[in-house]
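Lab notebook page, bench 4
Experiment: in silico fold of construct C2
Operator: M.H.
Input chain length: 117 residues
Purpose: comparison with the prior construct
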Amino acid sequence: MVDPEGGRSRRGEDTLATALREFGEEIGVPAPGGTPELLGDFRQASGKVVTVWTLDAPDFVVEVVRSNTVSLELPRGSGRSVEVPEVDDARWVPLAEARELVVAGQVAALDALAHRG
């Protein structure tokens, strides 16, 4: 996913290049090889729009997620910042299970994935 607030495209970078870069930064390994397919742009409840790409990689395995970190103000309004992993958990799950794990704004992307063909 390309997140306009976090995973912004760099100058001259297209959304696929951004998605591949973000995958590596957030998971800790390069994205698997294959032919990416654009699922589309999806508006989140916050109003931001994410561009979602997918590809089939049935043999791709990630043993350990090694995410980059981000600085968060905790508690909010305190002026105190802490570094935390951008991704603290990642796993491959069936679509039905994924629907229970994602935020509401990401369900449309899962629907597009289920209906691609």
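Observations: The chain is about 25% helix and 20% strand. The CA atoms of residues 23 and 30 lie 7 Å apart.
Next step: discuss at group meeting.
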